[in-house]
Amino acid sequence: PKESVIVNRPVSFFEAHRKIIIIASQIIFVLCVVIALLAINLRQRRRAAQALLKSEKQFRLLAHHAPDAIVIQTREQFAYVNAAFCALIGAKTPEDILGCSVYKLFHPDVHETIKERIRLMNMEQKRVPTMEQKFLNLDGAGVDVEVAAVPFNYHNENGSLVFIRNISERKAAE
Prior knowledge:
single chain; 174 residues
């Protein structure tokens, strides 16, 4: 009947543990939100890593096929050289020159000038003006070049991105 009172009614499991169940449900909800956010973050990181790899691949393709010599210098050594640079100095492969001192290809008279330019780019991250120089190729012959360089971070090391143009023909015509 409607107005009857139940005496010694058994307490349900939910009623007995109501606070614990509500707290556990809230914790599970928060954990699900955290997992969802981590999954989104992981997906964004993967996309960023793929974009970085694609960008690096495009840079290497561009640099490798550039008509002018391109060099990356770190710690006063060649860290990257393209095919045009190898042709300019008479190297068969980039491995012939990678890791070598940059001073190897400059006349000793300009070593101090080169050292100061490298210091400005590596230490102070300043751009240096374009200048004409005399390069020495691997067989010791001189080559007139125009060199432009900018500060560049390569594999977390300060260095410089250097563009070198052979101007021997122009010099001969002058």
